[in-house]
Amino acid sequence: MAIDANELLQDIDRRLQPESYEMYRKLINIEPDGDKKEFVLYTVKKARDNVIALFLDPPSEKGRSSLRQGDNMWLYIPNVGKPIRITSLQSVIGGVFNNSDLLRLDYSAEYKAVSLTESESNYELKLKARNNSVAYDQLTMLVDKKNRVPLKIEAYAASGLLIKTLHYSKLKDFGNGIVRPAMLETDSPLYKGYKSVMLFDGIKERKFKDEVFTLNYMSKVGELRQ
Fold first, then answer.
1. Which end of the chain has fewer surrounding CB within 10 Å, N or C?
2. Which CATH superfamily is domain 5-224 in?
3. Smallest Cα–Cα separation from 16: which of 168, 197, 213, 214?
4. Which residues of 58-118 form beta strands (DSSP E)?
5. DSSP summary character for residue 61
């Protein structure tokens, strides 16, 4: 029986994370000289297109939060006043991960599958952005057939230029049926010698009220932590 490529993509989304969830992440930016800068984020998501992330560490960033509602993104900085608009290709933390990577929606919300090929152990999905506000125009996703989670994703601009490569690894059982990679590394030909790493922890399904994903709530995200 033939596999529907877009149904496979939706299944991959659900295996990576519940539709509504909370999780903790550590992000590490590694410079060519070996210097590292680390961040700890608490992140919550609701449905397909609402995500908010709160900085817990380092102390210089503590209390900052980033909100995404569909294609729109904001950064809240304590003592600055109202949240400021940011774009998907900018990065509030520097390094190779951009804001779109930090506040990622379901892949199926931003992309449609245009082709699917398979080998004995993997699928390869070619994905095309649903509109031109998406950070990457095309993705090539190598998927582990057994666990239906990504192994590698190549992200391309509309010109065909390779922007970055994402490597998923360290498959982990997070409980409640979530078995997914606990580590994501990225490198880019545009940032020679630089690397960024994302480590996932404490992923669990949780429901949130709509008000959590509003500009007025950005200063209060820490109250959600249990």
1. N
2. Lipoprotein localisation LolA/LolB/LppX (2.50.20.10)
3. 168
4. 65-69, 72-76, 84-86, 111-118
5. T
HSE, CB side, 13 Å, CA atoms: give it for residue 199. 7
Q: Which of 68, 101, 113, 97 lies closest to 215 in space, CA to CA?
A: 68
Per-residue pLDDT of the chain (226 residues; tens, 9 = 90+): 568 999 999 999 999 999 999 999 999 999 999 999 999 999 999 998 899 999 999 999 999 999 999 989 999 999 887 899 999 989 999 999 999 999 998 999 999 999 999 999 999 999 999 998 899 999 999 999 999 999 999 999 999 999 999 999 999 999 988 999 999 999 999 999 999 999 999 999 999 999 999 999 999 999 999 7
The label of the residue with tokens 């090539």 reads 140
For 30, the token pair is 């590694």
What are the Cα distances from residue 2, in Å, to 8, 22, 95, 113, 125? Answer: 11, 34, 40, 14, 14
Taking the C-alpha atoms of 18, 104, 170 and 204 in order, what is their torsion angle to the nearest 10 degrees?
-30
Do 23 and 17 touch, CB atoms closer than 8 A? yes
With helix as H, strand as E and coil as C, how does 186-204 read? EECCCCCCCEEEEEEEEEE
